[in-house]
Design goal:
The protein is an alpha/beta fold. It has helices at about 90-95, 165-170, 215-220, 230-235, 235-240, 245-255, 265-275, 275-285, 290-300, 325-330, 340-350, 365-375, 375-390, and strands spanning about 1-10, 15-20, 25, 30, 35-40, 60-65, 70-75, 105, 115, 130, 135-140, 150-155, 175-180, 185-190, 195-200, 205-210, 220, 225, 310, 355. The strands form 5 sheets. Strands 1, 2, 4, 5, 6, 7, 9 and 11 form an 8-stranded mixed beta sheet that branches. Strand 17 and strand 18 form a beta hairpin. Helix 6 (about 245-255) packs across helix 7 and helix 12 (about 365-375) runs antiparallel to helix 13.
Length: about 400
């Protein structure tokens, strides 16, 4: 794939100012023409018109074409190329600018230390940004309008910079963060937040309020480190503000990557899975995430009892089919006649005008029923195997003496 790079030479290397080609996922090179790539210029990936103050004169600007990472043109600025048709055409050489909604993922090498103002402004389909802790400065509005970014991947080299904190401060949406360093990898989730302005009339000022726990979670990243104790302590607050799917991810990734994990925090996450098995189960089962369900089970996350709920006697239980029937039959449950019983209980409930508090039920049993109803046979098999081992190899057979 042919990619054209527009750039200028600066005091400490090269600044990328525009990219052309057919790619939607780009890896910025470490070097161009033997010089180190150190900066991403203002509006480099933006489809918006570059303001006058950021424009580069033709005398400064240079261009190089690469094909599969191999330079095609090494010397001269804006030299015409002969196309396949035998005609001279600079536009065909360039292709389309990789900017705006065309860009979906970008990787920055360890040589890049700065991102210019509004460099990714309006990249509405940008989903992933990979960078290193060499990044020292992110310009104003660099990621404004990048509402699709959901993954950040940072490679650490021990420099201890605040690049991760800067990047998270630029993006207010829920993001999955991956940290890589020699011999180590960890992942975690940072919830979203949004700002609201409230007018304080007596004081004649606008007060800024933050909604959602994402702002406080972002304060756990400083001095080039993740302060896991503060991160874990925020889970209690998140329980009252965040949706179940976010809580399930927060808890799961901390169990999967227990760096800086205290026993108290671990217990709190596992207890949440047991108490909210329906919400967590729905999230993982919809994604058919066998790895997550297995890990949580083996960690003891579904060994408790589910949180009790009040349900009307008139509510009928949905009878499972397929894999669900197989599961309930294996547990000795009768799936026939439940609708009739439910109707009768409903009449009694209507006469008494009272609700019924559901008896506490084992979280693992509820999860197996859910897996059966949703047809997740592989997960159901894993859960039944865990249930069998948890019971010590199964129930002992009764012996009758005559």
């Amino acid at each position: 794939m042919r990619i054209t790079w527009d750039y200028i030479k600066i005091s400490n290397g090269i600044r990328i100012i525009k990219i052309w080609g057919e790619e939607s996922c780009l890896q910025i090179p470490e070097e161009i023409e033997g010089l180190t790539v150190t900066e991403i210029g203002p509006y480099a990936f933006s489809a918006a018109e570059v303001p006058r103050r950021f424009r580069v004169s033709g005398d400064e600007q240079r261009r190089i074409v690469t094909e599969w990472g191999v330079p095609v043109q090494k010397n001269g600025a804006f030299t015409k190329m002969i196309t396949d048709t035998g005609q001279t055409g600079e536009s065909k050489m360039q292709g389309e600018p990789v900017s705006g909604n065309r860009l979906q993922a970008v990787g920055l090498p360890s040589t890049v230390t700065a991102i210019g103002d509004y460099a990714f402004y309006g990249c509405g389909k940008l989903e992933k940004v990979a960078f290193t802790d060499s990044l020292q400065r992110i310009g104003s509005g660099a990621f404004m309008g990048c509402g699709a970014v959901r993954r950040l991947e940072i490679t650490e080299s021990g420099l201890g910079k605040n690049s991760l904190y800067q990047m998270l401060s630029e993006l207010r949406y829920a993001i999955k963060v991956t940290i890589k360093s020699p011999g180590r990898k960890e992942e975690f989730v940072v919830p979203e937040y949004y700002e609201t302005s409230v007018e304080n009339i007596p004081a004649r000022i606008l007060e800024l309020h933050f909604q959602g726990t994402g702002y406080r979670y972002r304060q756990c990243f400083r001095d080039g480190k993740v302060w896991y104790r503060e991160y874990d302590e925020l889970f209690r607050l998140a329980e009252s503000q965040e949706p179940p799917e976010v809580l399930a991810q927060l808890a799961y990734y901390r169990i999967k990557y227990p760096n800086g994990f205290s026993e108290e925090a671990r217990k709190g996450y596992l207890e949440w899975f047991s108490a909210h098995v329906r919400e967590a189960g729905e999230y993982f089962l919809k994604r058919d995430d066998l790895e997550a369900v297995r890990l949580i089970c083996e960690s003891g996350g579904f060994d408790g009892t589910a949180k009790t709920e009040k349900r009307s006697r008139g509510n009928r239980r949905v009878v499972a089919d397929g894999a669900g029937d197989f599961y309930m039959a294996s547990m000795g449950e009768n799936v026939l006649g439940e609708e009739e019983a439910g109707n009768q209980n409903g009449k009694d409930g209507e006469e008494n005008g009272e609700g019924l508090e559901e008896n506490p039920k084992a979280s693992l049993d509820i999860l197996m029923e859910m897996a059966g109803r949703m047809g997740r046979t592989e997960i159901l098999s894993c859960l039944m195997d865990y249930h069998h081992r948890k019971q010590g190899g199964g129930r002992q057979k009764k012996v009758f003496e005559l």
